[in-house]
Design goal:
Blueprint: H1 3-19, E1 27-31, H2 35-41, H3 47-67, E2 72-79, H4 87-106, H5 108-113, E3 115-120, H6 128-140, E4 147-155, H7 157-174, H8 179-185, H9 188-192, E5 205-208, E6 227-230, H10 240-251
Parallel strand pairs: 1-2, 1-5, 2-4, 3-4, 5-6
Helix pairs in contact: 1-10, 2-3, 3-4, 4-6
């Protein structure tokens, strides 16, 4: 082990000690950004090589969350806009996502941890074989209730809110309620009950990798009171030390929830 590795481990341990005994987020959301740039800057001919590297990082990240007792994790793997990219890249990426979600759902440590996997987004936009594979992964973990992974695929925040309103209005019509009744009684929680992410608490902390400083619509409704952390490493290069820094930054903030 070189001097750099030793220094890294010592710093990582110091960060972990700083976090001990202080509040940690209950739900962490991550925008997994930078896979394509990671591949391009390393001379990889196929951008899906970067997506594969990013997929492998997910296992490490879930280990870190489990070790720190962070029970809810949401990962944004594919946006609705991403579906408009080159068809060969999208096809390859969807295969990587399906394989990754299935592998995570079926591996022994997920069963031991009680990991429950769910997928959210405009899933009807995905090819039927991909939808079927994701559904099988969900069903394999349906009885788990200790550690929760929500994977956003074909997800867009504006689309989610649009679909929630559409669902709410359809439900009201089915109950025989008039539009005027809906307008007079509508509350934020009514919309919340129809979001893709129903059943998950709102995220306490949202992390975006790759140096981009924007949300791009990720959990647009749910993130009203979230804390944000933006960091430079591309997702495949995201280290435990980067995660600990994000958590340290989170602990140093005073959360007022709009009050």
């Amino acid at each position: 082990m070189g001097i750099t590795d030793v220094a890294y481990r010592l710093y990582e341990r110091r960060l972990a000690d700083e976090l001990a005994g202080q509040p940690l987020p209950n739900h962490v959301g991550v925008i997994l950004d930078g896979n394509r740039r990671f591949a391009r800057e390393r001379g990889m001919a196929d951008p899906n090589e970067g997506h594969l590297a990013g997929a492998r990082k997910i296992d490490e990240f879930l280990d870190w969350c489990w070790e720190l007792d962070i029970p809810y994790v949401t990962l944004w793997l594919l946006s609705t806009e991403n579906l408009d990219r080159d068809s060969s890249e999208v096809s390859g990426l969807l295969g990587i996502i399906q394989d990754t979600v299935t592998r995570i759902a079926l591996q022994p440590k997920s069963r031991e941890r009680g990991l429950k996997v769910s997928t959210v987004g405009a899933l009807d936009l995905l090819p039927e074989p991909v939808r079927a594979g994701l559904k099988e992964a969900e069903e394999a973990t349906t009885d788990h209730d200790e550690f929760f992974l929500q994977v956003a695929i074909g997800y867009g925040g504006r689309q989610e809110i649009t679909d929630a309103l559409r669902s709410l209005l359809a439900e009201a019509a089915g109950e025989g309620r008039t539009l005027d009744e809906v307008v007079r009684t509508l509350r934020p929680e009514d919309i919340g009950a129809h979001l893709y992410t129903t059943g998950f608490p709102d995220p306490d902390l949202i992390i975006r990798t790759s140096g981009e400083v924007r949300l791009s619509g990720f959990l647009l409704w749910q993130s009203a009171h979230s804390e944000y952390y933006f960091c430079d490493p591309y997702w495949p290069e995201f280290r435990r030390i980067d995660f600990l820094r994000a958590l340290r930054d989170y602990q140093r903030r005073v959360r007022r929830f709009g009050r």
